[in-house]
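Quick illustration, no need to memorize.
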Amino acid sequence: MRGLPLPPLELLQACLVIGGKPTEDELARFLGVSTSEVIPWLDRLYDCALAWPGQDGRIHLAEAVARWWTAPCGLGEPLSTYLDSWMLNTEGLRRICRALGLPPQGGKRQMVARATALLGDPERLTDLVSGAPDGTVGVLDDFAWDGPVRSVDGNRFLNAGTPEQWAADRGLLFRTQWDVAEMPREVALALRGPEYHGPFTPYPPDLATIAVDRDAVDYAMCLAAPHVLDRATALLENTDKTPLPLLKNGGVGVREVRRVAKETGCSEEETRLLLEVAAVARLVALDESVGGLVPTDRFDTWRLEDAPARLRTLLAAWWRMERSSLRRVDGRYPAVLGDDPSGETIARIRWAVLGALTEVPDGYAFATLQELVQSVHWRAPLLDRELLAECAPGILEEARLLGLAAHDSLTDLGRALGALGQVAGNENDDTVPEVEYDPVLAERSTRALASAQRTALFGADLTAVVTGPPAAELASLLDRVAERESKGAASVWRFSPASVRRALDAGAGADALLDQLAQVGTLPQPLIYLIRDVARRHGEVTVTTVGCIIQGSDPALLAEIAGHRRLAKLGLRLLASSVLASAAPADRTLAALREAGYAPVPVNDTGEIEIRREPQSGRLILLPGGRVAELDPLPLLTEPPPDPHEHAKRLITTREEAKQNGQTWALIGRMATRLPTAEQSLLGFVVDRGVRALITLSDGVTATVSHGELHSGVLDAWCEEAGDYLEFPLNEIASVTASG
């Protein structure tokens, strides 16, 4: 039924309204047309087995048809459905008969027959309504023409004297819910009058057309077909290089779409369309191991096929695709490859739109989109009309990008595809041979790509010009080795050292590159010089990732380390006689060398040996500027942990003895020769009063010290960074500053 136009569906509704098994003449009489106008559309129903003629000449309908329409022709259930309902008992039926002036005697079936005969007779019903309260005619007309089910005020059915209460008492309306009422079919037909005929539209609505240049349409097709093949190849190669990630809720994000569009030279609309087409064609698929969309094995096969076959694969995928890439919802495109609950309907809308355009003669285009939508609705009346109007502009734009439409008219390629709506298949089909291998579509696709240029004009200014639509293979070659500057009727590429280097970085060789370019045109001398010069300098400098560097003054020792079997896991490489490169980071390399029996030391970025102390909780490195870094503990401890009793003893010492002897100031003044007088005094307070100070040694190492003692020209003080008592030679202290 979804594939039928409006007239046969109108015939089915008319048969349901008439009831029973009407004849062809009765059907034509109800529709107000001749029997000859009805028969061709009845034959369509017979071909689909939705109806068939009986031996008695009456029309039989398939049982499922009655369940399709709840209100054929806008009419409700037969009156007998309401009168025989369990909700209406015999006494209620007698009350209706009395209100209608009918005898209430007899059985229920007899009373139903009397009420149906009266309410289904236009003349008797007119006489009945003439005595109704004011406003009753308007209420009944609303139900008869805009019903059969309408919202009502339930209270009005209880109040005496209202039109609703009067109509309900006589069986003209039945309240199925408190605020919902329905009108029986016979009542509505009687109110519509004897002149009423069911709707029948045997001819499609007029579709205004305007003349277009057929050559311009063909030229647009010959431009678009190779272009879409070229852009699809570029897009798939881009996903091969960089997997396309999906959003958490499915689909491809706008940011990724724009990135791919920029990298491939596609427009955002082309990117959206070709991504979804490629997914339906199974050219890309989700690879969970890389977390994104990547080309499939089918892509490798597809790119080896000839150009017309590749184009038909894309067209067949678009033809069965259950989404519209360029449909706008609230002014925005939906997510690429996102789920669409209306997917199957959108595919049918696509078939209906192109099917309607195939009816437009060659050399003409539709005048207005509104008339086109009306024409499509006549051909597929069961499609959602609002969704149809919403999707039609996007479908036409997609058809234009694919070379199926131009200047509001179908190209020859579009006409061939539009005739294949019955064999389109669905999105879950792996292949659709009926479409991909259709002989007419194969011939049209070959012709659409026949004008694609396979040669280029190379200029001495390092440009390549293609005068016409470039073949996908030619465009792919030039894109690899040059930058595209313009596209359209003529495309221009420009060669540069950077573009040639990019091709060499991708694995191309200079000789192979020159051979490939020479096959598509005559190469000028400047271009040959450019490619060979870039190739000559390509690889002069190499870049390797290393974990750390090992240096030594003894080449024999480094050669021994490089050949040590236990150190093979480090991936050591001899860069020079005194330099080794390790693939492992510095801490792992240090540990491995020490385990192997060597005695390496770490150095910082300036080449200086780092000072390391071993606190109780782990090893610390005291860096220039007072910075501290924690490292994994080494297997050997170089010093015992600090003694807390010694620290407590120093904290409570009064140092009166040192003050009385006056030796602190004399010793500092004699040994700390790098310090000015003021800083020598501050250092004395560190010893005599236990104050905190920041000292800097001559090699740049800083430390925060307190509670110091002097021993033979050395300051023995608590170092907060090391968490222990350290010794600092007085003649190496370069500065002392107060520390809060």
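The radius of gyration is 46 Å.
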